[in-house]
């Protein structure tokens, strides 16, 4: 090699370390591997009512003063900006493409929003007598209302729609016994039949009571044996009721009823929605709409969300 060629080789070696036996790439360096971007969360099911099998419900403690022909006040929906979902990770649907098994997959739940917003317009229809096996009673009632006119039917409709959305986000198939709050009925006999035809794993009828102004608190109503179709599911209904009671107390902070039942549990044989049920079913009287403090809570959109979430947790505890 000539002296000029040797000098050229030395220069090239200094400019490129790898060319002169420098440390090889050990694979620890370099850009991060690219992967698919995380997609947006699945918004989950919408809250509008599903379609029941057909188009009532007993009231836990009917309030005669509520049976009027005056139209109830419209529901207070609150400011959308203020309506944040009560805290529970289980209410958030899994991200798109998630393989996580939802806890209520394969379960069927029927929700019965008590009464209906236009029952007061058709007294002949709702006063029609129906057979609930232990006696005959009205097809349905108008329900009660707060002293300033917030109707039980509007309250139960809002809570039930939210309850439906939460349960569906957890994998359940959910049916409602009515599709709007601007109809009449259905009769209490048909409300029970909807749950029976669906072969529901659990059914819950949502109500609020109309008792004396000093009375307060919630209670759960469960069926008694009557030598009828409900007898085989009485024990399961009690288990459902206990699960709902525990979750409702924990989630809402509302006390046990001070005026009916024992430790917020009441067993009855006079409600068609229970007597005629062949699936586990309970009623929840979420509180007393004639008590000023509880009426304020029921009018609050955020508190209604807490009620719906608490009921969903109770139903899930029973089903799982």
Protein architecture, described:
The chain is an alpha/beta fold and 320 residues long. The chain is built from 8 helices and 8 strands. A 6-stranded mixed β-sheet has the order 4-1-5-8-6-7, with helices on both faces. Strands 2-3 form a two-stranded antiparallel ribbon. Helix 3 packs across helix 8 and helix 5 (234-252) runs antiparallel to helix 8 (301-319). The longest helix is centred in the C-terminal third of the chain and has 19 residues, at 234-252. Residues 1-57 and 62-98 have low confidence and may be disordered.
Question: Which descriptors would you attach to this protein?
Answer:
13% strand; disordered N terminus; two-stranded antiparallel sheet; 8 helices; 6-stranded mixed beta sheet
What is the structure about, briefly put?
The protein has 320 residues and is an alpha/beta fold.
Tally of individual helices: 8
User: What sort of overall outline do the alpha carbons produce when their principal axes are compared?
Assistant: globular
List the uncertain runs: 1-57, 62-98
CA radius of gyration: 29 Å
Spatial ordering of strands, largest sheet: 4-1-5-8-6-7
Main sheet makeup? 6 strands, mixed
What order do the helices and strands follow?
HEHEEHEHEEHEHEHH
The helix-and-strand class reads alpha/beta
Number of strands: 8
Helical content (DSSP H or I, runs of 4+): 25-40%
Percentage of residues in DSSP E strands? 5-15%
Mean pLDDT: 79
Oligomer: single chain
Give the distance, in angstroms, between the N- and C-terminal Cα atoms.
Answer: 85 Å
């Amino acid at each position: 090699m000539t002296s000029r060629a040797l000098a050229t080789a030395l220069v090239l070696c200094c400019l490129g370390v790898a060319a002169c036996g420098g440390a090889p790439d050990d694979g620890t360096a370099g850009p991060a591997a690219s992967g698919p971007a995380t997609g947006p969360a699945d918004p989950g099911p919408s809250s509008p009512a599903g379609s029941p099998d057909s188009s009532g419900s007993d009231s836990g403690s009917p309030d005669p003063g509520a049976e009027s022909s005056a139209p109830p006040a419209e529901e207070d929906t609150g400011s959308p900006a203020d309506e944040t979902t009560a805290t529970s990770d289980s209410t958030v649907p899994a991200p798109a493409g998630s393989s996580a098994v939802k806890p209520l997959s394969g379960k069927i739940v029927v929700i019965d929003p008590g009464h209906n917003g236009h029952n007061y317009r058709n007294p002949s229809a709702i006063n029609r007598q129906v057979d609930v096996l232990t006696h005959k009673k009205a097809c349905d009632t108008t329900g009660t209302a707060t002293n300033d006119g917030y109707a039980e039917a509007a309250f139960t409709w809002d809570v039930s729609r939210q309850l439906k959305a939460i349960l569906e986000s957890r994998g359940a198939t959910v049916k409602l016994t009515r599709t709007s709050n601007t109809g009449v009925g259905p009769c209490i006999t048909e409300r029970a039949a909807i749950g029976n035809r669906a072969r529901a794993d659990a059914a819950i009828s949502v109500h609020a009571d109309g008792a004396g102004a000093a009375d307060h608190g919630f209670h759960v109503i469960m069926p008694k044996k009557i030598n009828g179709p409900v007898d085989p599911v009485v024990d399961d209904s009690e288990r459902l009721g206990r699960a709902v009671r525990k979750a409702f107390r924990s989630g809402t902070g509302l006390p046990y009823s001070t005026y009916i039942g024992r430790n917020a549990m009441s067993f009855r044989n006079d409600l068609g929605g229970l007597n005629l049920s062949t699936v586990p079913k309970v009623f929840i009287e979420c509180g007393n709409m004639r008590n000023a403090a509880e009426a304020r809570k029921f009018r609050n959109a955020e508190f209604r969300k807490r009620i719906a979430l608490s009921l969903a947790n109770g139903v899930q505890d029973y089903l799982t």
